[in-house]
Amino acid sequence: MALAAGAFSLISATNPRRPAAVDQARLEQADADPANWMTHGRTFNEDRYSPLGAINRQNVSKLGVAWSYEMRESRGVEATPIVVDGVMYITSAWSIVHAIDATNGKELWVYDPEVPRITGTKACCDAISRGVTVWNGKVYVATLDGRLVAIDARNGRKVWEQVTLDRSKPYTITGAPRAARGLIYIGNSGSEYGVRGFVSAYDAETGKLRWRFYITPNPKGPDGAASDSVRDRALETWNTAAGEWLRSGGGGASWDALVFDKETNTLWIGTGNGGPWNRELRSPSIPGRNNDNLYLSSVLGVDPDTGAYKCHYQETPGETWDFTATQPMILTTLKIGGSDRRVLLHAPKNGFFYVIDRTNCGLISAKPFVPVSWATGVDPKSGRPIENPEARFQSAPFLVSPSGWGGHNWHPMSMSRQTGLVYIPVRDAPVHYAADPAFVHREGSYNTGTAYTAFPEGPAAREMIRKLLKGYLLAWDPVQQKEAWRVPLPGIDNGGTLATAGGLVFQGTVDGRLRAYNARTGAILWDIDNGAPAFGGPISYSVKGRQYLAVTASFGTPAYLTGAILSTKVGDMRKSRVNVYRLGGAPIPKRPVVENPTPEPPVIAASEEMLQAGSLNYSHYCLGCHGMSAVSGGATPDLRRTPYLQDGESFRAVVHGALATSGMPNFSAWLKDADVEAIRAYIAGRARDAFQEEQKRKHAPVK
């Protein structure tokens, strides 16, 4: 879809370069071009450091609104904006691409790949996209339903399209593609749903597949892929006679981190968790054998031109906790032991901060950056974690820290070249794990192999959980492997970070604030209401000498799908936005107060046993999208307030597929009529709680 092409012509007339004029040479010299943010982490090193310093510690308090752009959807936005020569390219939910004048927010064109909304049923964590990449006049987006699309940057028209995966399987794509050496690299998602992860490289001009590397081995034989050279080595670490992986593929999906290393000519891949999580179900361990399940939860280096294996470091051998290694990586050079070392810095879900040698994947150091219960440390000689033997939760439940929420998840971290510190949005979120003795793989459902328990009800229980789950911004010294400072944050799902030459660190928080910190001390220098959380990484760019700060604003992602009840503020169904700030900009507008009262819910006769069954089935099938205790965060309907709750037949029709084309799954294969009515009774109880509380506030005497 091409819109406002004339405006693009006007921009082009003032800039001799054609739109998205990015190539290998320009990206390799990105530090000499600080006005632009041309790739996901600004440079190939992905340190998310902006050399711009017009906005600094002395004047940051004078930031105001430059412009704000409203998107078409109300779902979550996790994208990092790309800015090239005065034009911003960004994705919203459902992989929709927007081209925007970076000086005033005027829409230039929109490309909608028309992702079928039913695809959202296969996406664990909202219908999100983490952004685009640009190369030689084209913009590339990977769609949620598995396509890689090249778009003409001049007019938003499709140039070519490739289906990158087997659509008969429950794959999705949420990550941003990367471009280097004339190729476009992309991974995929879906480990818990039953897929086998891989990374592919496509020719940027023609869309032809150049190579593919599978993260888990094929037990049936070679794939005819780059990974065949290490298939036998990987197979030795799996049970080839038993286990869920023989049917589902074992997981390992690389859904985020892909980093091109120009110094060692390596593509670094962060690989995913096992599917299902529980290794004893996925690939039962064999005494006396290597049960590491390569190449799950690893930092994997391959040749960027051919995909040929170079080296790997497995951060969590025999992964069983959803400890992905897909989190963002930073490439840099550190002076360690008196020598300059080319290193990869990584703070993955498992809670250890790794410094890895980029020349051979050797471990230099690893230290916990959050409380860790599953291991006591990492052996510096073997590079293996020193596991707590009870942490694998087979004989008894175990409180795992940091848990599958991750000590750090996909939210980008940054590194300041002034302080040498890495700024990490950290989660301290322990969770009880227990094996599921009755595990059955459910097609189209989230399969972990861990036992589900109903979410505890009542204000006291929820307050206890809020206190247990902590989030903070952590400044980490990667040489000394120790904390420099931290700032506590509300909730655990806070946004990515940006470090700048102005001595600042920017970050959005889960309650919708946007902050600037002193990069050396952590002192808060600027704190405003962004209207909604800025989950993705902030960026900074300049046009005609004026520096801008750009962030997104949206409700959605797991913070507002699953955990809204644990947040300090609940979202509402409003359109997502891009907000851009500059010195001397307009005053920050106040967030509108949205009243969404709960209608009086139906009275449903239900026994205690029925309510408990409804609570458990809700936790299993509904919680992931509609929230703990049926409290929605604003990206999906709040079931306590839906009119379908009033009528059992209407409610059952929705659960059994009446709204499937709108993205609501069809659960008829798993939930019979009695199960659905029990869920409705449970939701009605939560609605009754909300209704009574609202009535109490409404009729309370004014003080």
List keywords for this structure.
about 700 residues, single chain, alpha+beta, Cytochrome Bc1 Complex, Chain D, domain 2, globular, 2 domains, Methanol Dehydrogenase, Chain A, five-stranded mixed β-sheet, four-stranded antiparallel β-sheet
Describe this structure in words.
The protein is α+β, with helices and mostly antiparallel strands. The protein folds into two domains: 5-194 and 202-381 and 406-429 and 469-583, Quinoprotein alcohol dehydrogenase-like superfamily (Methanol Dehydrogenase, Chain A), CATH 2.140.10.10; 608-698, Cytochrome c-like domain (Cytochrome Bc1 Complex, Chain D, domain 2), CATH 1.10.760. 14% of the residues lie in helices and 28% in strands. It is built from eleven helices and 37 strands. It has a five-stranded mixed beta sheet with strand order 1-31-32-33-34, with no helix packed on it. A four-stranded antiparallel beta sheet has the order 2-37-36-35, with no helix packed on it. A hairpin with a 5-residue loop joins strand 13 and strand 14. Helix 8 crosses helix 11. The chain is globular and about 70 Å long. The N and C termini lie far apart (55 Å). Residues 609-687 form the Cytochrome c domain. Pyrroloquinoline quinone binds at residues 78, 130, 174, 349, 409-410. The active site is at 322 (proton acceptor).
Report the total helices: 11
Tell me the Rg in angstroms.
Answer: 24 Å
Shape: globular
**Beta fraction:** 25-35%
Helix content: 10-25%
CATH topology of the largest domain: Methanol Dehydrogenase, Chain A
Structural class of the secondary elements? Answer: alpha+beta
Largest sheet: 5 strands, mixed
| CATH architecture field of the largest domain | 8 Propeller
Number of domains: 2
Alpha-carbon distance between the termini? Answer: 55 Å
Number of strands: 37
Summarize model confidence as the mean pLDDT: 93
What's the CATH class of the largest domain, please?
Mainly Beta
Strand order of the largest sheet: 1-31-32-33-34
CATH superfamily of the largest domain: Quinoprotein alcohol dehydrogenase-like superfamily
Q: Which segments are poorly predicted (pLDDT under 50) over 5 or more consecutive residues?
A: none
Family: Belongs to the bacterial PQQ dehydrogenase family.
Cofactor: pyrroloquinoline quinone; Ca(2+); heme c
Binding site for pyrroloquinoline quinone: 78, 130, 174, 349, 409-410
GO molecular function, one term: heme binding
